[in-house]
Specification:
The structure is a homodimer. By secondary structure, chain A is of the alpha+beta class. Chain A is built from ten helices and twelve strands. Chain A folds into two domains: about 5-165, Ribosomal Protein S5, domain 2; about 170-300, 2-Layer Sandwich (Alpha-Beta Plaits), CATH 3.30.70.
Chain lengths: ~300, ~300
């Protein structure tokens, strides 16, 4: 490997975290895509090279990584080309930041190859353009943790204001992905444009509690705050068995349970990996009864976002 | 003084803190009421004794301190009486927690005299009954910081869930109280019962940013987060000169500016006492032009809530 190419690992992410709709997200450990980027002088702009793992569009303007890379190049002085190979492991449409990983991996890798001309906040901005292609709206709650690692707060999208929140050491996640299709753009359409003030107050009280719980490592407070009284009551109707899964997760000791991103994946947060494994067993048992195929992962919270991928 | 009587200092408080409508509050230093409570066997229940400073109802059931004390006694085993003397320094209706100070002082003092049978959370619950008398709604964002000190978060009112948030060391407040009447119950009536979802998201993003800023002592983030896009645009219309005051405070270096509680007091937060003094000068200059009488205070954030009052 030389300075003209780089291999990166781009983590899957859980966005929203229940009450933190559109503002909170966290990076998962061990689940993610690998990408290889190579600079070249033989053309200008972006080319999508080899794609493995899943089918993805090869036209850069229709590819999330391509669009994010194009946005970065447009703001840079670089006039050459870049080839992006993608080994896609996170299924598009799963609700654990598949498009965000592609976008974040592309801009992080390209920024490294160009000598780090851009700040992380700027990279988040470029990656959001890739996100917009995938979901129809430029949101940052997946790309921010994918780039920053840990737990990220998107205080504001316009102007972009993103900060890291302290990650309690023992925090673990269990993510179940029902193999059904649920488009982010559809999941957004069913939301109401007006909400009752008293539910808004309840939601921002929970956001305050969740962030306080993260900083003080108060797992009880984190659990009490993991409530979404606005979006989840509507969106959960699109996820078969949601209430049974929640019941099973909480019974098994989860701090809280909710929809990952805009679904269909669901997630539980736990204190420690042992309880996460117990939650995993309980969710498997519950969902096997329903006869819907699914994938399930247990993961710590990744302290780093996109990073160099060590190759064998 | 013996174990049958106690003198307490009950601090003024700023509730809401802009984006933290109904969920955040902080305790001020040096501004507050003093109260003297004395147990007696000569009668049962609560008697309001000497009232100085302001006129207050002497009937316990119509007096905020009386109602809070009655609520505590009803939950206790104590069958005797208590006399409460009040030296009222915080003007009722000022918006800096006048009724909360009375209620918090009464229950804190009474709890101490009875040998601390109740937790702070229980005391907040009793004090909220006093608050309900004053404002028509049992809210906790003044009584919580009045009892806990520092910055308090009310995650939920039912069930009551209150935690302390870290207070950045240099945080100061400047509070201006225009001498106009504005009832809490009226200030609540003009609020809309429905809010746009996108403004809700902006508000809870700001709550997340504000609490993160408090924990990380990131004053820039605190400043950017001190925005209320829901309540302030409506309520500020009831406060003459609000926009001019905000402009003056921010020009003088305030981190943020908003309505204290339900008004009419307004507050600015600053980094350090020097800037707080500069903000004070700027607000005085602005408000003197309007010809409305006012009071103004600069204060640190009190690390403790209601406490023993040292008598001369």
């Amino acid at each position: 490997m030389n300075a003209h190419e780089i291999s990166v690992f781009a983590p899957a992410t859980i966005a929203n975290l229940s009450c933190g709709f559109d503002i909170l997200g966290l990076a998962l450990e061990g689940i993610g895509d690998t990408m290889r980027l190579e600079l070249t002088n033989s053309f200008s702009g972006v080319q999508i090279g080899t794609v493995t793992g899943m089918d993805l569009p090869k036209t850069p303007e229709k590819n999330v990584a391509g669009v994010a890379a194009i946005a970065l190049l447009a703001a840079s002085n670089y006039t050459g080309g870049v080839i992006i190979d993608i080994d896609k492991r996170i299924k598009p449409g799963s609700g654990i930041g598949s498009s965000a990983a592609s976008a974040a991996g592309a801009v992080w890798g390209l920024n490294a190859l160009l000598g780090h001309p851009f700040s992380t906040t700027e990279l988040i901005g470029f990656a959001m353009e890739g996100e917009a292609l995938a979901s129809g709206a430029a949101h940052a709650d997946n790309v921010a943790p994918a780039l920053l690692g840990g737990i990220a707060l998107v205080r504001s999208t316009r102007p972009l204001d993103v900060v890291r929140v302290h990650t309690p050491e023992s925090l673990h996640a269990c993510v179940l992905h029902p193999q059904i299709e649920l488009k982010t753009s559809d999941a957004r359409k069913i939301l109401k444009t007006q909400i009752p003030l008293h539910l808004g107050i309840r939601q921002w009280g929970n956001v305050g509690g969740l962030i306080t719980g993260f900083f003080t490592e108060d797992y009880g407070l984190i659990g009490r705050s993991l409530e979404d009284c606005i979006v989840e009551p509507i969106r959960s109707l699109l996820i078969p068995g949601f209430d049974m899964l929640r019941e099973a997760a909480l019974q098994a000791g989860a701090l809280g349970f909710g929809i990952s991103g805009s679904g269909p994946s669901v997630y539980a947060l736990t204190r420690g990996s042992e309880i996460a494994e117990r939650v995993r067993e309980a969710l498997i048992k519950t969902y096997t009864q329903l006869g819907i195929p699914f994938e399930i992962h247990v993961s710590g919270i990744s302290p780093s976002g996109v990073r160099n991928h060590k190759q064998d």
